[in-house]
Every structure is written in structure tokens, then in C-alpha cells.
Amino acid sequence: xxxxxxxxxxxxxxxxxxxxxxxxxxxxxxxxxxxxxxxxxxxxxxxxxxxxxxxxxxxxxxxxxxxxxxxxxxxxxxxxxxxxxxxxxxxxxxxxxxxxxxxxxxxxxxxxxxxxxxxxxxxxxxxxxxxxxxxxxxxxxxxxxx
Amino acid sequence: xxxxxxxxxxxxxxxxxxxxxxxxxxxxxxxxxxxxxxxxxxxxxxxxxxxxxxxxxxxxxxxxxxxxxxxxxxxxxxxxxxxxxxxxxxxxxxxxxxxxxxxxxxxxxxxxxxxx
Lengths: 146, 116
Known about the structure:
The complex is a heterodimer of chains A (146) and B (116). With 146 residues, chain A is of the alpha+beta class. In chain A, 16% of the residues lie in helices and 42% in strands. Chain A contains one helix and eight strands. In chain A, the strands form two sheets. A six-stranded antiparallel β-sheet of chain A has the order 1-2-6-7-8-5, covered by helices on one side. Chain B has 116 residues and is of the alpha+beta class. Chain B has one domain: Thiol Ester Dehydrase, Chain A (Roll). In chain B, strands 1-2-4-5-6-3 form a six-stranded antiparallel β-sheet, with helices on one face. In chain B, β1 and β2 form a beta hairpin. Chain B starts with 6 loop residues before the first strand and ends with a strand. Chains A and B meet through α1 and β5 of A and α1, α2 and β3 of B. β5 of chain A pairs antiparallel with β3 of chain B.
């Protein structure tokens, strides 16, 4: 069994650079998944040395997508498909991370109803809680062209 | 941040703005390859950029009670978006904004958030 953090992220996510905002899956179990992302020095959503809220939301949504991708590829052995954000609720950004900071995000699975997955997100930097949200993502049956 | 990378500004006023999406943006090649769709996170960032531009400040979302994406913004079908924004509680909570994102008559997303 390949360790979680050695799985290339493109095996789990349908997004491609420059729109990838998860570096690694750190842990998977059905109820509880963790991911990591280091804020780059420059790139999309990075301005004046800090990572904007849009980037944090995309990082959270892709953390949920990495969970779904792991289930597809390594649990169900089916292709990874694309998904979309349906809603973001109860978003709180306590502070914006700076370039170079490592985000570690916990995805707590709440429910899946008709292909809509509800997850609660907690984003931390060195243990400090910096952002939370409840995110609904909608799956699809579409695979990306490789 | 996303202006002139994902969209260009057609016009902006105190309560609305119209943008033209750039289908050649690298974002569409990455999200998703062969099936471009405007990322919801980008629509949130565009909303805070446009509201910020309308009041002459750089603003970002600090809190959001409810953000909903109700119609996909596919660059092959939708070339322009209108953002309509207002302060629902100007006296008590002047940082709270309500934003509706429309393509013609079609509502694509609505959001209520705190900008600072």
C-alpha cells in the first residue's frame, strides 16, 4: 500500500496546474481526511505576500475533491471524475496565510445525498486554526482528458 | 488579482459591474482540461475584487454565511457576467455585502459575505 503522502496529487484531483491547491493527501478514512498545501511565493490567489480567501476556499474544495479522488481510485477502483462547489456556508477566515506557510486541512465528512457531499473544513497553520467552512460539492460522471 | 487574467472589466458603478470572461485564461485549461468551467472560488474572488473597486479599496472575504452556485459559468456559453451588489444592513453591518452574479436573466451565484 502506497503511503498517502506519496500518492501524486494528480492521481486524486482532476484540476491541473496552475489551478492545483493541494500538495498531498496526508490521511484518509471515511469520516476524516487530511491534506496539506504550502502557499507558494507567487501564483494565483497570492497577492502582497498573502493567500487570498478565494485560494483558501479552493484549497478547501480541493481537499474534499482529494478525498473523493482517493475513494474513487483506491477504494472503488473507478476513474476520478470532476466535481463542482455547490455551496460554501459558515466560512470564517481568522487570518490569511502568508507565502511559504504550510496549510494542514481536516475534512470531516458529514453526508452524501444524491451525489452532493457535505464536508466541514478546518484549515490550520502549525496548529493555529486560520479558517473554517462547510462546503457542499457536487460530483459528476465526467473524466478529464489525459 | 483575477482582473485581466480571468476577466476584463466592461464597466463598474456603485451597485453593479459587468465583466467579460477570457476563455483563453490558463485557469480554463486547468479547471478542467477539455471541460472548462469558471471555478466557484474565482467567482468569490471576483465579487470581492469588484465590490472593492466600486468603493476604492482592496477588500477580501472574511466571513460568509451563505454562498451558493446555482448555474455553471461555462466560458463556451457565457461570455459576460453582471455582478449586482448591495449592503443589506448599511447601518448595523456596513461590511456585509450581498452579491448576485447573473448571465442575462440567469442567476449563476449568490453570496452574502463580510468584506474587510
